[in-house]
Amino acid sequence: MRALITEAWKAWSIHSGWIVWNLFLAFIPLALSFWLFRRRSQSRSILWWVAFLVFIAFLPNAPYLLTDIIHLIEAIRDYYSVWIITLVLIPPHLIAIAAGFEAYVLSLINLSYYLQRQGAAKFVIWAELMTHALCAIGVYLGRFKRFNTWDFITQPNDLARSVMDDLTAKRPVLVMAVTFVVLTVLYWLMKQVTLGLVLLIRYRRGSITSGDTNQDTDTSRVL
To answer: What pTM, to 2 d.p., does this model score?
Structure first.
């Protein structure tokens, strides 16, 4: 038993060290989205725009967690026992990946809510697609080129040069295109699940009637 616990702790220490840091980065844009898009005041000060730029810069960190599945694959390849893999490695990895992507979904839901409140509901889909495209580029730069969010400030020239080079090369563009499709599909699915759960919770709390659950489908009314 002691040997099993020691092995479990060793596996966790080696293969799960990324979880807390990457989740922290993923939840930064989520926290900012509530301040930017959910507050009552609709004024956009200089501070608001600065926070918005920070939100955009950090947002790719949320869907980036999808690529952290490679850590789980590497852990499985290290020939741990089936119990270590099943009980120690798989659950935290999958929970972290799901939590990171849910942070992405909620951030965009908040953005959609803000656009609808501003009378720009017709731009919601385009804003979502543009965000997916920008995040696809960000995920590629983070996973394959190993750039970090703060490189926007510390290495702006290298980052800009890398983006221009990658956007003119076939393989990087293909990877970004596939990532864009994956983000778009997964976001749409998770958005429906998230809004459905919100409706269910509100219905059980008595905030909405049973008739409203069939009509309340847009973000501004659901949230």
So the answer is: 0.86
